[in-house]
Amino acid sequence: SFNMLGNLMVSRDLVDPESKKGSEFFNAMIGLMEWTGHPNVVDVFPWLRWLDPQGLRRRMDRDLGNALRIASGIAKERMEELRGGRERKDFLDVLLEYEG
Prior knowledge:
Radius of gyration: 17 Å
Distance between the termini: 31 Å
Number of strands: 0
Strand content: under 5%
Oligomer: single chain
Structural class: mainly alpha
GO molecular function: metal ion binding
Number of domains: 1
């Protein structure tokens, strides 16, 4: 289902075993889902937020940064393709058209 969403949104296989970007993006998204599902001690004891006793903030920041870096790269590649006259008309193309 993750790959199906990737095909719908950006016309790209995100779970292709030969694609390094795809596997990195998939792993980052799995990490984000995992970290958001963990109970966080800081929710009960807010004064511990600065300490991040479970390391959830650090891991979330790492995985979110990786996911955003890869998504940004995909968007930049698509913008270059659009400048070259190549269109696919998927969700990303619609978003990029709306930007302008």
